[in-house]
Specification:
Elongation Factor Tu (Ef-tu), domain 3; 4 helices; 6 strands; 20% helix; 31% strand; binds adenosine-5'-diphosphate; binds magnesium ion; transferase; ATP-binding; zinc
Length: 153
């Protein structure tokens, strides 16, 4: 995918209440404007990269880009699981991410256990790949330290 690495940021909005948090894997949903700006060659599926909330620290993340059931699957959604335990929710805050690499296409699972196992293996793959020097250096990109991050771009 020629658009990778892809940098973007925007407000975190409420999702579809699919109970990701109950699975122990909360996913922060981007507002529509962020999703609308996605380059066409970024296909649906699971990605890994770096993320930061507001002016906070930069953590590893996995992101699912999929079809948004709220819009009858005519629009995409971008859901980021930040690999970090936060003390509080961060709805309404600005999430900054860089999509670094692609893990796998979206698929459906026969059981919740199978879904959770797949996500956990995505998380392990993300952790490992992001240690590669060419991926790790993106953690320190100016994008995450810029002081003018507040209203998206
Ligand atoms: P929703 O359907 O509203 O997206 P989720 O159950 O997916 O609900 O929870 C997502 C919310 O959880 C995020 O918007 C964020 O405020 C919060 N959250 C807490 N920890 C994390 C994390 N590590 N990664 C992503 N979101 C998190
Ligand atoms: Mg979510």
């Amino acid at each position: 995918m020629k658009s990778l690495p892809y940098f973007c940021r925007g407000e975190v909005v409420r999702g579809f209440g699919r109970g990701s948090k109950e699975l122990g894997i909360p996913t922060a949903n981007f507002r529509d404007s962020v999703v609308d700006n996605l380059p066409a060659d970024i296909s649906t599926g699971i990605y890994y990269g770096w993320a930061c909330v507001g002016n906070g620290d930069v953590y590893k993340m996995v992101m699912s880009i999929g079809w948004n059931p709220y819009y009858k699957n005519t629009k995409k959604s971008m859901e980021t699981h930040v690999i970090h335990k936060f003390k509080e929710d961060f709805y309404g805050e600005v999430l900054s991410v860089v999509l670094v690499g692609y893990i796998r296409p979206e698929r459906s699972f026969n059981s919740l256990e199978a879904l959770i196992a797949a996500i956990n293996s995505d998380i392990e793959e993300a952790k490992m790949k992001l240690e590669l020097p060419e991926h790790h250096k993106l953690k320190d990109d100016n994008f995450f330290t810029s002081t003018t991050i507040m209203n998206g771009h």
